[in-house]
Amino acid sequence: MNDIHVGNEVLFEIDNNIDELVKKVELLSYVNPINLEEEKQKFFQSKYLAEPNFKYPVMDFDRFQMHRELISQPIEHIENEFTRELYEDIIYAYSGLIQCIQTIGTKRKFYYNSLRSFGTPTEQDVENAKFILHFEEEDESEAQFQPKYSPKETEALFRDYSAQYDFSYHIKFSKDMSAIAMVLNNIKTLVINEKHTFSDNEIAVLTNHEIGVHMVTTMNGQLHPLKIFSNGFPNYEETQEGLAVFSEYMSNNLTVKRLKELAYRVIAVDSLAKGYSFSTTFRKFVNTYDLDKDTAFNISVRAHRGGGFTKDYLYLSGLKKIYNYYKSGKDMNALLRGKISLDYLENIESLAKNGCAVDSKYITDSYRENKNTNKTVDFILENLK
User: What letter would DSSP give residue 252?
Assistant: First the structure.
């Protein structure tokens, strides 16, 4: 950092201060119910009528102190206008995430905070989801979809896949999660659902999605002089999830079945936004879309957890944006620099010119060559609006 202009000193001080404050702001660590299985059993026993009463991890930081210290950062002293505006957005974004965490489990309060942080599906997003649902998905009896690997076997497969990347990370297991695997960025940890048996297709999807993108960008983000590349830019979730699902596509593992899963997530968040309860959302999936009860429950949980978590619709909108970006011939490696957002590429280029950002060291393996052979998936992605 010695070669960076002294005028950036205040920028690095603010960036370090924000880093110290937001290390514990990992929303996924707090929004996953800790009594998921118990409430699932109760819900099924009630014939899908009793609303689940989820409980969540206790917040282990002083939210008021964090708000105060975030807002008091002297961003007016940042010389570069682009960078000053970026850090203003960063402070507002993390303040919003803190509000999300502090209101988890409070129904509408959390929903409105989630709405401010992640937005909600547009009519076009919902139409895109319904468009996908018209297509026939692959036969579930195919060998690639059959449960096969235990969580411990899955861990070994993740390790084998990761050997191509020169970085290390932690793996832990959890029974209290709605996803079957996820990356916790702040502690460089892959979490595997210890109650799930994984198929060949799930292994292929998860290795490319979780390691090939989420862990790659976690590791790249830590190489920058500025820690915001690791903590995450405002609205980075849509870009991140778009990149991750696009990696599934490029590696020839994105199926119509998977696209329908993303479409159902949009439908679930739209149901939430229209004021429907968990049980109503669940019954819609069972009665209207003919989903099995376990799938319907898991998708409904993802949207309704915390009191209304709207983030899930971003997977599909993010995928479309990244697909368009790729088709335009732009450099994909630039999007792997860390937890960045398409909305801030100009700001990032400005930071790079000032020595405050570096190129991506780790490159998503699947991005090197488009191996997709699924013509139906191509047709769907080309025709999303």
Answer: T
Q: Does residue 299 sit in helix, strand or coil?
A: helix
**Amino acid found at 300:** S
Reply yes or no on whether the pLDDT at 6 is more than 50: no
In the sheet where 189-193 sits, what is the strand order?
170-174, 189-193, 181-184
Token pair 């008021």 in the structure block, residue: 64
Q: Are 354 and 5 in contact (CB under 8 A)?
A: yes
State the Cα–Cα distance between residues 316 and 72, nearest whole angstrom. 36
- The tens digit of pLDDT for each residue in 100-128 reads 999 999 878 999 999 999 999 999 999 99
191-220 pLDDT, tens per residue?
999 999 999 999 999 999 999 999 999 999
Alpha-helical segments (H) within the chain: 9-22, 27-31, 36-45, 63-71, 81-102, 108-118, 123-132, 151-162, 200-206, 216-221, 228-231, 236-250, 256-273, 278-287, 293-304, 314-327, 345-353, 375-383
pLDDT digits (tens, 9 = 90+) for 244-278: 999 999 999 999 999 999 999 999 999 999 999 99
Strand partners, 192: 173, 181
Lookup: tokens for 287: 């009665």
Could you tell me if 265 and 316 are in contact, meaning their C-beta atoms sit under 8 angstroms apart? yes
Roughly what angle, to the nearest 10 degrees, separates helices 36-45 and 293-304? 120
Is 208:366 a contact under the CB 8 Å cutoff? yes
Per-residue pLDDT at 321 exceeds 70? yes
